[in-house]
Amino acid sequence: MNNKNDFPLFFAILSCLFVISLQFYLQNTPQTQQVLKSQAQEVFNINQPGNGINFTPQDPKPDSSFKLVVSSTTSYQWIHLKILKSDNSLVWEAPKDGSQPKTASGNPNTWTYSSVGLPEGQYKVVFFINCNKGCKEQFSRSLFIGSEKKNEIQVVPTEEKKPPPVNNQNQVKKTVPQPPPPQNNNNQTQPDNVLPVNATMCNTEIRIWGPKESKYNVIFLPSKYSDATSFINDAKTAANTMDQTNLGPNLISKINFWLLNRVDIDLHNPSSTPTVIRDTICHMNAFVVIENNPTIGGVSYGLGNGSVALTSGSIPSLTLPHELGHAIASLMDEYQLKNQTPMDIQVINCSKQSSGNEGTPCPGWEQYGPSGVGCFQVCGFNDWFRPTSDSIMAGGINGVWHMNNIFNPPSITGWEIALSNYQ
Q1: Residue 413: how many CB atoms within 10 A of its CB?
Q2: Taking the model in full, what pTM does it have?
C-alpha cells in the first residue's frame, strides 16, 4: 500500500474502511482468518436475511473441485460446514484440524472452503456455529451439481460502518486527511437494483489469454473519468505492469483483464456496488477501481477477496501487482503495520518464528534452499519475519516508500496456490 500527497474523498473513506476491516479481523478474536471473496453470490434456503452460502464456480461440474463461501452480516464464531445427501448422510465436511477459518470479518463477513468434487445430484450445504459447544445448525441451502436446475444468484447485503476517528499511530502507513463535504448528490452511486450496467458492458478486452471459463478474470471499473479512451489506456498500462514482476508467463497468462465499457458512471463510492458488478453482472473473480487522479494511492480490501482500488497516478509504481498480491494471492504487507502481533493468522509470506539469523530461512521456508530466502524482522508486525530484505510486498520499510518488482519465493508460492485451479 502506498500514498503520497493528499487522497480525495474516494481514498479517504476507502482507507478508513480498510483499517476497520484489518483491525477487526486481526483483533476481534483469537481465531482469525484471511478474508476471501467468491466469484459469485447466490440465493440461499435460509430464514435469516443477510446470510448466504455461495459457490465458485456458480454451477459446479460433477467430480470437479469447487469453493464454498459462507457470507453473513452477522459475525459468528467457531463455525463448521457440511455437505449432505438428500437422505441427510454426510458426503463432505470441512477439516477440523485448524486449517479452516473459525471466525471472519468483512462487510459482509465471509468464510471460504475448498470442497472435493461430488457426483451429479442434489445436495444440502449446512452451516454450523458455536462448534466449541457441540455445533448449532444456523442456516443451509441446496446445491445442484450436473443438474438442469441452476444455483441462482443473489447478493448478500452490505452493512454500513462508521469509520473511527483518525489515529495516525495505529493506521496502516496511510495519512488520510479529513474529506471535504460532498458537492452534490448527483454523482453518488445508484442503488444496486437500478444500476445502469448490464453484462454486455463487461466484455471490453484489455489483456486476454484465453477463454473466460478457464482463467482468473479481473475487471477494471472507472472512477472520475470523462472519456473512455483515457480509462482504456490507463487500464492497459496497469495490466501490462504485471510483466515487470517476476511472476513469469505461466502465472501471468492465467489472468484475464477486462474493462467495464461505461465511464459516465462513477464507482468511487465505498458501497457494495463494485462487488455487485463483479459478482452478479459481469461474473468476474476480482475488480480494480481506477480513479482518474494523478496522486499515488492504492488499497486492497482484505486478503484474497478480489477487491482493489487505486489511482491512475499510482500505476507506474507497480501498485497493481502489489495490491493484487493481497487480493489474489492473500499476501501480507512486509513492512510494519502495527506493533502488536495478532493470534492465529497464517500468511504464506510471513513467519511468526525466527531462525535467529537473517541469512537462514525462517522455520517452514527451508524448502526454498539457496534461493536467497532468509528471516528478516518485520512482516506486517514487529515480531513477524519476512523472507527477504526487500520485495514488492515490502514497499514501505523504514517509512520510505519504494516499489521493488520482485515477489520473493514464498510469495510466488502464494500466487501458485491461488491460481492453481486456472489454466
Answers
A1: 17
A2: 0.56
Which residues have CB under 8 Å from 300's CB, separation 6+? 1, 18, 307, 308, 323, 324, 326, 327
CA distances from 99 to 120, 138, 223, 323, 351 (A): 28, 21, 38, 25, 16
Q: In the chain, which segments carry CATH 3.40.390.10?
A: 2-23+198-330
51-145: what fold?
Immunoglobulin-like (2.60.40)
d(CA 153, CA 415): 28
Q: Indicate where the chain has its CATH 2.60.40.10 domain(s).
A: 51-145
- Cα 110 from Cα 70, distance rounded (Å): 5
Amino acid at 93: E
Residue 199 φ then ψ, to 5°:
-65, -30
Whether the Cβ atoms of residue 290 and residue 221 lie closer than 8 Å to each other? yes
Q: How many CB atoms lie within 10 A of CB 53?
A: 29
Question: How many angstroms separate the CA atoms of 134 and 57, rounded?
Answer: 31
Residue type, 399: G
Q: What is the pLDDT of residues 129-174, one digit of tens each?
A: 877 677 888 878 888 888 776 766 544 444 443 444 444 433 333 3
Q: How far apart are the first and last CA of the chain?
A: 29
d(CA 288, CA 208): 16
**How far is residue 200's CA from residue 400's CA, in Å, rounded to a whole number?**
43
